[in-house]
Structure formats: C-alpha cells, structure tokens
Amino acid sequence: MTVVPLPSRRDPESGGQAGAADLPAQAVSIRGLSKTYKGAGEMPPKTALKGVDLDIPRGSMFGLLGPNGAGKSTIINIMAGLVTKTAGSVKIWDFDIDTDRRRAKLAIGVVPQELNIDPHFTPKELLDLQSSLYGLKPGEYRTWEALEVVGLTAEAHAYSRWLSGGMKRRLLIAKAILHAPPVVVLDEPTAGVDVELRQHLWTYVRELNAQGTTILLTTHYLEEAEKLCDTIAIIDRGEVIAREATGDLLRRVDSKEMTVTLTDDIAEMPYALGKYDVELLPPRRLCFRFRRSQTQIGEIIAAIQSAGLTIADLTTAEGRLEDVFLEMTGKRAGARHDDDAP
Q: What is the distance between the alpha carbons of residues 129 and 127, in angstroms, rounded to a whole number?
C-alpha cells in the first residue's frame, strides 16, 4: 500500500490552510454527553453514556478503549451524526454538532467497523459519489489520489463485491480521508484483517498523524493501542474511568515479571526462593512475578545467589496495557456487558 498522505486543511468547508495559532487546541471536546436508549415493548430504557467529559488534543493519536457495550461506538456515532444524544455537547474542530452541523461533519472522517460498501459500485464510482456528497465539483475530486494512498488504483474499476476483505477495508479508509478531514476516527480498523495489511495500515496512519491529522482509535487489540497511541481513555459502563498519557497509564501497573536463566540445570525449586511467586521453567529458567512497590530486583538476585545459583541471563517485563485494562474494568477488551445498549 503506497503511503502518500492527503494534505490536511483547517477549514473543512473552504479548504483553506491556517497557521498553528488559528487551530483549536482540542480536536474534539465533549462535555456532559449522555445517551439513553428508549426501551422497546416491556424492555426498560438503557443508558449507554453517563455525562461523559472528554478532550482529544489536536494532532494526537488518541485511543478510546473499553469492553463491548461500554459506550465507545455510541460516542463515535454521536460525533458522526448517526445517533442523537440525550444531553451534553460535542465540538469537532471547534464546530458544535448542533449549531454548526455541516462544518462539524466535514471536519471528521469515520472508518466504521462494518464493511458498509455498495457491492454494485466500483471503488472509483464510490469515491466520486462520496466527493459529490461533500459538495465538491468534478474538477475538485481527489478520487485517484485517495485510491493511490490506499493502494487500490489497480482495482479502481472492479466491482466492490469482487474485492477482498482487506481491500474493502482500505476502500473504507479512502472514503474517510477523501475530503481531508482534520479528525479521522478508526473504529476497530484491523478487525479480521491479515498481518500484512495491518502493518500497511499502521504505517499509513502514523504518516497521516505526522502530517497533523488527529486520529481517534478504538480497538480490542490492546497491544496496538499501546504502541500507537500517545494518550488513552478507558470507558466502562458509559463513564470515562481514566484518561492519561499512555506511559502514565502503564505506570499504574505495579506488577513486574523477571525471567532468570541459570548457568546450570536444576531439578527442583531451591528452598531459599520459596517466599517468592516464582515458577520453575525446566531445565534452567526461573520466572518471578512481583510487585515493584514491595520487592526490588536486587533483593531477588541476592536470594538467587545465596541459594548457590549462578545467573547467565536476565530479562524483565513491565505491566502491559491489558493489565491496566483488566485491573480497571475487570474484563478483557472483547468482553461483553449484560447491559449493552442496542
């Protein structure tokens, strides 16, 4: 997939560029956002969002994480104008979605989870249609530029129903960036795609972000968020329970793991190491799990040496984002709440 980023622009309607002083500090600003879905028949109403406050800084690579049904997609759908909020306010690039709806919609591009592509259109036809919906004249279309960005120029005239799943995912990205929005939302963009496409996608997303585009990412692949995002918010049961720089969030985890490789094989655990949470990995490795606030690495090394063992190698692993997530939500990223909103 060729990486040729489309230029970002300040005013989504006029296409004009602006200096840094004219740009908003927050790409997205959400205040008191609530959403309650009405019950159907005897079903009671369900609250999906409970007074969410959230700021997404301009130019950031922002991760929005949470279990299924936590409220992520509801926030995105409200931003995109697909769901009507119950209360609160949302501004995208300083444009209020209620009072400046047109510019707010022009300021955002959304790559949805679902492959919502008309199978009877070719990629070129779909992007031309998308361009016209954004009010561009035929001479202003950037269809070929977008197709080149996502590596689909060879498939430009093929019916979309003939494209592979990965190609359809790329076409969704092309649709989202076609009008050069300053904010791009990627809602589970790598779900069901192969490793090669995933790598190409993240290469492009990093380049797009480097050009100044703000990226909002939701994903159940927490290692992706950990590697890509500079800031992460965690939402659970309709409430934001954390919003911090990724490094700060990871430092919340007190757990640490250390694997020690010995010079000689051992058949059983030395008695002197019995007070630690340690696992013998035959023939000569010991895996220690401990809390940094309670145990120092030097203490463990001294205990190993006092047991008459010699260390040949040592590796450590810090707590990962999944550990933070599980600790804060009690669920894995793909887990589903019983009270999911429709």
A: 5
CATH no. for 255-318 = 3.30.70.1560
Residue 338 token pair = 């019983």
**Which residue is it, tokens 């190993």?**
304
CA distance 7 to 27: 17
In the chain the first and final C-alpha atoms are separated, in Å, by 36
Concatenating the DSSP letter of every residue in 262-278 gives ESS--SS--GGGTTSEE
Backbone angles phi, psi at 163, to 5 degrees: -75, 150
What SS3 class is residue 195? helix
- pLDDT at 203 > cutoff 90: no
Phi, psi of 294 (to 5 degrees): -115, -25
Domain boundaries, the chain: 20-250, 255-318
Question: Residue 248: phi, psi to the nearest 5?
Answer: -65, -40
Q: What is the pTM of this model?
A: 0.76
Per-residue pLDDT of 270-288, as tens digits, reads: 998 999 999 999 999 999 9
Strand order, beta sheet including 26-37: 46-57, 26-37, 87-92, 95-96
Q: What is the CATH number of domain 20-250?
A: 3.40.50.300
**Are the CB atoms for 28 and 91 separated by under 8 Å?**
yes
Token output for 173: 């990205």
Cα 108 to chain centroid, rounded: 16
Backbone dihedral angles phi then psi of residue 313, each to the nearest 5 degrees? -155, 160
Q: What is the pLDDT of residues 314-333, one digit of tens each?
A: 998 766 777 777 777 776 55
Q: Which residues contact 248 (CB under 8 A, 6 or more apart)?
A: none
